[in-house]
Amino acid sequence: MTGVTRATAIALCIVATTPAARAQRAATDWTQWRGPNRNGIIAGFSAPAAWPETLTQKWRVEVGHGYASPLIVGDRVYVFSRRGDNEGMSAHDIASGKELWRAGYDAPYKIHSAATAHNQGPKSTPVFANGKLLSIGMTGVVTGWDAASGKQLWQKPGADVVPLYTTHAFSPMIDGNNVIFHIGGHGKGALTALDINSGTARWSWPGDGPSYGSPVIATIGGTRQLVVVTQDKVVGIAPDSGTLLWERAFPSKIAVNSGTPVIAGDTIIVGGSDLPTQAFTPVRNGTAWTTTTVWENTEIPLRHSNMVVAGDLVFGITTRNSGQYFAVSAKTGQPLWVSPGRQATAGAIVRYGDFLFSLENDGELLVVRNSPTAFDVLKRYKVAEGDTWAEPVFSGGRVFIKDLNHLTLWTLN
User: Fold this and answer.
1) Using an 8 Å Cβ cutoff, are 317 and 347 in contact?
2) Domain membership flag for residue 154
3) Are 179 and 193 in contact (CB under 8 A)?
4) Which helix (H) or strand (E) covers residue 22, if one does?
């Protein structure tokens, strides 16, 4: 195992001084949960001809507490974090890590005694769009920020009583001029689209409470739809109106649902703590929709991790045997390989071409070959000494890591 100091880091982007340059470098931006296309696929990264023995730490700065992944836009890194009872956003210079601005609001939050290991968050990754940052905090406060200055543009209050579970780990997403949140707590709440400029509600679907899972938008059966795991369901919602298209029962009995769906063609793949990892296809017959099961696999339950798709392969890490990586067929769900056990409690997995990267919760970053035949680890890098639950961000030979309190920039040279 190679040695590198553990630290915190965040997303990527390069300074762009002209519109043409900015357009050319847009692929290196990381503006939302799970990357540019919300699927864990890395764009704008330069893989080395040979992986170095160690990574080089360029800087490490304390940015506040939390599990939100950082965002990269141009020459700035944005972090949503907590400092004491103050929850807020900060902007940092990519070259140095220097804080450019910090803005926040009072959000006292006492974690339930049964969940102290989860810490005080925030857990939701914000989203960037049209010069604005949109976030939701642990108590459900929704805020629109000006990305240039940190000025608060608008804000929606949170809940008076915060539930033990579903403390707003749902990461918002942009659809046109709307930003979509799942507002509310365990047993109640509404999937809601807000205008990004004013916070005005455009539509609301109150059919189920939120989970820790975050949505994606996909075109399935020729229909564009928002796909999200809720408290007890997987649902398809018309993103322009909030109309329910279809729903599928997905109740967890022992934990809160937490997965982001992955899409393979017209097939949706989801997993849960005590539920089979499963693939299904929504099918429309006239105006009515149903869902058809494609496959189920009870041997690879998921909890706090998300899967990535590479062609006909699906990669992930299951909670079985204290953590096992796996590859299954996207078409059949049949296992192609399963790693030895005791790998990690959780891993944030992203993909670039023939490489998989997994940031494990203990601060180790794995480089794994995208292989249909074996768990082929190329390198292991220690990138933090504290908990690492945020996803890593890659761009142009740089790796940004967010641990519990710090942000760190590593480079491959």
Assistant:
1) yes
2) yes
3) yes
4) helix 19-24
Q: Which residues contact 69 (CB under 8 A, 6 or more apart)?
A: 10, 11, 30, 33, 125, 390, 391, 393, 402
**Domain extent for 94:** 19-411
Residues in the chain: 413
Domain CATH code at residue 363: 2.130.10.10
Please give the tally of structural domains in the chain. Answer: 1
The answer to whether residue 215 is domain-embedded is yes
DSSP β-ladder status, 71-73 and 76-83: antiparallel
Amino acid at the residue 202: R
| Nearest C-alpha neighbor of 12 from the set 393, 355, 358 | 393
Tens of pLDDT along the chain (413 residues) come to 333 333 333 333 323 333 333 333 567 899 999 999 999 999 878 788 899 999 999 999 999 999 999 999 999 999 999 999 999 999 999 999 999 999 999 998 877 666 666 677 899 999 999 999 999 999 899 999 999 999 999 999 987 666 655 578 999 999 999 999 999 876 678 999 999 999 999 999 999 988 888 999 999 999 999 999 998 999 999 999 999 999 999 987 766 788 899 999 999 999 987 789 999 999 999 889 999 999 999 999 887 789 999 999 999 999 899 999 999 999 999 999 999 999 998 999 999 999 999 999 999 999 999 999 999 999 999 999 989 999 999 887 889 999 999 999 999 87
For 41, which DSSP code?
B
Pull the structure tokens for residue 386.
């504290």
Q: Which amino acid is at 150?
A: G
Instruction: Say how far apart CA 50 and CA 269 lie, in whole Å.
Output: 33
Domain assignment present for 8: no
**Residue 3 forms part of a structural domain:** no
- Cβ atoms within 10 A of the Cβ of 95, count? 12
Structure tokens belonging to residue 251: 């109740």
